[in-house]
Amino acid sequence: MAGSAQVLYSVKGVKKYYPVKGGILRRIKNHVKAVDGISVDILKGETLGVVGESGCGKSTLGRTILGLEQLTEGNLVYNGTNISGYSKKELKPFKKEMQMIFQDPYASLNPKQTVGEALEEVFIIHTNLSGKERRENAIRLLKEVGLTEEHFDRYPHEFSGGQRQRIGIARAIAINPSFIVCDEPVSALDVSVQAQVIKLLQDLQKKHELTYLFVSHDLGVVRHLCNRVLVMYLGQMVELAPVDRLYENPVHPYTEALLSSIPRPVVGAKRDRIRLQGDLPSPANPPTGCPFHTRCPIAKDHCAAERPEWREIEEGHYIACHER
Ligand SMILES: Nc1ncnc2c1ncn2[C@@H]1O[C@H](COP(=O)(O)OP(=O)(O)OP(=O)(O)O)[C@@H](O)[C@H]1O
C-alpha cells in the first residue's frame, strides 16, 4: 500500500434499500435492506476486502459506491468532493475515475464485437482520441494485461475464461481510473488461472497506484490480496481490521465463525469449525438490535433490543458487538 494513509473515498452511512412490491396494485410492501448503514474510509492505494455470506450486500455496496445504484441514504465523498446527489452530467468526471471488474467478463462483453472494438469503445466514450490513437492504445492495453496484438480482431468466445478476465481488466484500466471495484473477479476461474489474474491485479495496482475494493467470498484470496477487510452481515458492518489482525484475532463472533471455515494447516493454530445455528434471516425483515443475535452463540437479551455501536477496540480494528 502507498505510504501515507490518505482517504480516497469516504463512504458515510450508506444505505441501499430495494422496494418489495405486492398485491394487485403492486404497492410497495416492504424493503430489502441490501446495504444498511455502511461507513468506511477507503485509503489511497489500498485493497479493501469486503467479505460475508451470500446476500449480505457486498455487490450492492460496490455498485452503490460506483454510482450504479441510487443511494437510499448516506453520503459518498470522493477525493474530498461530496458526490451524493450529483446529476449524471456532474458525475461524469468521477465515473471516469471509478471502474468495475466483474465476476463474469463474458456477460459484460458484446459477443458481436471484437476485443479491439470493445476496447476502442471505451476511448470513444471517454476521450477525443483519433482512430489511429485508439487502436494504438487498445494494443498497448492488450499487452499490458498479458495478451497480444493478434488478439485485437478476435471475438470474446475465442478466449479462455482467464483471457476474458484480462480483457475485462483492460477495459477497466483503459482510461486510467484511480479506484476499481473488483466484484469476485477470480471466482469463476480455475485455481491456477486465479493466481495469474491476481498477480496481474497486483502488478497493475503498483504500476498505476490503483485503489481496490475487493468483493469476495474466497477468504484465502482476500487474505493474500487485501490490506484491510470489512466483514458484512445482513447489509451491516460487523468488523473491520487490517488483514493479518483480522485473520489471527477475529473478535466478532460472526467473523470467528466465518474464518473458522477456512482449513488451517498451521501447526499449533488449531481452530475448531464453528457451525452457525439457524438460517440467515431475510434482509427484508432483519432482526432487531444486533442483526447477528439470532445466530450468535454469545448473545444476551440486550443484543435483541439495541443495535451495537461501531467502536474501535484497537488502532484500526473496529467491531459492532455488545459482548466483546
Ligand atoms: N436489484 C435488486 N432488487 C431487489 N433486491 C436486490 C437487488 N440486488 C440485490 N438485491 C438483494 O439485496 C441483497 C444483497 O444482495 P448482494 O448481491 O449485494 O449480496 P452479495 O453479498 O453480493 O451476495 P453474493 O455473494 O451472493 O453475490 C440480497 O438479498 C439480494 O437479493
TrEMBL record:
The keyword Nucleotide-binding applies. PROSITE patterns: ABC_TRANSPORTER_1, ABC_TRANSPORTER_2. Gene3D superfamilies: P-loop containing nucleotide triphosphate hydrolases. This is Dipeptide ABC transporter ATP-binding protein. InterPro entries: AAA+_ATPase, ABC_transp_ATP-bind, ABC_transporter-like_ATP-bd, ABC_transporter-like_CS, Oligopep_ABC_C, P-loop_NTPase. Keywords: ATP-binding, Nucleotide-binding, Transport. Residues 20-259 form the ABC transporter domain. Belongs to the ABC transporter superfamily. GO terms for molecular function: ATP binding. Pfam families: ABC_tran, oligo_HPY.
